[in-house]
Structures are given as structure tokens and as C-alpha cells.
UniProtKB/TrEMBL annotation:
One of its GO terms (molecular function) is acyltransferase activity, transferring groups other than amino-acyl groups. Belongs to the plant acyltransferase family. This is Anthranilate N-benzoyltransferase protein 1. It comes from the Eukaryota. Coiled coil: none annotated.
Amino acid sequence: MVSGEGFIVSVSKVEVVAPELPMQEHWLPLSNLDLLIPPLDVSVFFCYKKPSSMSFASMVGSLKNALAQALVYYYPLAGEVVTNSTGEPELFCSNRGVDFVEAVADVELHRLNMYNPDDTIEGKLVPKKKHGVLAVQATGLKCGSLVVACALDHRIGDAYSANMFLVSWAEIAQPNKPIISAHPCFRRSLLFPRRPPSIDHPSLHDMYAPMAALPPPKFGVQSEPLISRIYYVTSDHLNRMQALASSNGVKRTRLQSFSAFLWKTVAEAADAAAGVDGKRKVVAKMGVVVDGRKRLSNGDKNMGSYFGNVLSIPYGGKQVEELVEKPLSWVAEKVHEFLEMGVTEEHFLGLVDWVEAHRPVPGVARIYCGHENEEGPRFVVSSGQRFPVSKVDFGWGKPVFASYHFPWGGDAGYVMPMPSPIGNGDWLVYMHLFKGLLSFMESKAPQIFKPFSWDYVLSRH
């Protein structure tokens, strides 16, 4: 039983859902790009209004049955991560199954404070994964609505991979969709290093370093707490950002424009704080996650269904005074410049080779690690625009709200913009940043960073 934010969550049952057709136990190595991911869990949750013809028990039964069938295709999710003889993580496909938590909460859906997911979601509506690589929780609410949440070991797959699984699971749950639309691929040979390797690309050394060569990420150690917030950003404001970020006939993407605006706003907050202490030289760093599947889908490689991590994090660092003084179009140009380093096939092939050259010493993205001679905020933006909200329909309707939840515990922030379930071009933006930065953004641009409100969202329909 867990209480908080005015409601109590009572866990009624925890069981293991195993694949319907167990496969033979075997080992599946992590790819070199998987080895760049620290041991973190990422969570995602979906909120559904009460269907007129289904009880909580029948919905849970449907989820479990479909999950058992989905695990036949996604069998690594029924395994566990272990350490091999070289000290590296490896996936043991043991068919242990997935922990499934049934719970009830004495709160109505429209009373859930999604603006503050640390109190409402964390530790209550999303499961704490204790075993295996995936955990699921289904929570029935007082009004009959349902919250379905998952926690996944990030070393096993990225958001693209999680999205594939969620869509397949939902398709299997629907009686009119007997087969899944896409079969996952676990061929690690698609990410084998080259012979001979090539790690001369300058982006590799600018963006990554062996863990032993840098101060490690300070997971859970910071002077000011990082907290999570969910904001609602309208399409009108996104369009204005895009117009201001574009110049000289070059139209920036919405993600680049929003990232530039966020970088500039964070710099303003850091500049204001530095002014109190005598205008120290402060550098604000921002990284943007790049999915390498399209970059690597050349020749005989088809990465569209690949399940695993295919990520890189190019980043830029600028003195806060410069980011504050320059127009948004200049900041967007700098975002574009550092992104160019990480969007090529050669970069991703080189990154695979770079990891191989340093194994078994783990590598780390430099954006996650501070430097003893530098100070200033650091954060990463990860696009969730492919978040398949409308496709995660288990047979009782589309979600009315859905979000990733990633309070990962480092001292670098994390931001993920996702499409609104309304489908009108608005965004939901999950932010995990220092409390002071979030307070500054809310006061600086309250019309843009609107705290999530059920009443406001309903007014946008």
C-alpha cells in the first residue's frame, strides 16, 4: 500500500506472466551501442477512461493474455540481465517472464496531478522493477478508469524499441488484429564492428569518452534536487518558435526550434543565478538524442524493426551570456551545427568501432559528465514525436493521456516532448531538471510552459 498526493494505491496481486511458447534458454549479447547505456530503467504510462462494457478484472485478464503472446515475439523481455566473465552486462533469455502488478487507487482520473508526476506517478502508478528487464502495472482508479504502466531496462532497448513492443502488445489484445504489424529484429550482427575498425571521426572523441577518463555521472548526487514536471505546449507557440528560429530561407524543424528555445531559456536562468555571484563564466550544455536507424539502413541492413539501442547524443556548449544575447535563429543554427556531427552513417559505424576499441572499459556520453573546470547546466532533449499514443489501444479505446517518465537520477537534465493525445499538433513535454530552472522557466514564459491541467486539455478539444 502506497499513499501520497491525496490518494492510496493498494497492490492486490503480483505475478509473473511468462511467454505462451517458451523458447530454449540462450544468451543474447548486448550490442556495442547497448553498452553505452548505464543501468537505468525508463517508465511509460497510459491513462484510459472507463469503458462501458468491461470490468477491471476483464481488462487485466486481456492485458495478461496479450502480454504472454507478445513475449513470444519479444522473448528477450522475459529474460534478465547478468554480468559475464569480462564484467559486461549480457542478456540471459531465461523465459522467467514479466512481473505483473495489479493495483487499485482511490482517486479519479481527472484528479491525478500529471503536472507533478514525481508525487502522482513515481512509486505509485508505475512499477518498481525488481527482477528481469520489464515490469508492468495495471491500476484501476476510483472512477473505473485504468492506468497501464511499464518499466523497462534501458540497456535492452531505446524508446523506439519500447514503442514497437507497446504497439504489438496492443494489437494482440484486439480481437480484430490477430497478428502484429511488425516483427522485432534482434540481430546483433547488424551492429558488429568493422574490420579493420575506424575511429578517426572527430565527433566520436568530442561526444564520448571511456568512463575511466572522466568523472563518472553523479547519479543521485547533486546540491539541488532534480524534479519532474509535465507541461502542455500549444501548436501556436511551437509555430512561433519555429518562425523565430528560422532565418535566411532555412526552416528549422519544430524539435530544433524548441530545443534552441529551451537552451536559451536555461541559459537565461543560469545567467541570472551567476549574476548574484559576480558573473562567473558559466557554460550551458545541451545534447539532442539522435536515432541511428535511418542512418544505418543502407545496403543489406534493414534497421526499421531492430530492437535495441541505436542512439547517439551530439551536444553543444556555449557561454550563457552568448546564448542570452543572440537571437533564437542564431541559437537554432548552433543546434543544427552540433547535430550535423551525429546524423551520418559514418558517425554511427564509427561509434560501434569506438566502443569495441575500449571494451571492456565502458564508454559514456560526455554530456552526462561534468568537468572540474566547468560549471553550468547540462541537459538532454530526446524527441518523443514517434510516441504511438493513438496505437496503444488494447480494445477499450485510445489513451486520454500518456507520457514517458524518466527521473533517471543523474545531475544532467532530461526533456522529452511528445504529441498530445488530442492529435492537434500540441505537445506534452516531460522535463526532469533542477527545480530552480523549472521555476525560472515557468515565471519567464508562463504562457508557453503551461502546467498540465485536465481542464485546459479538455478546452483544447
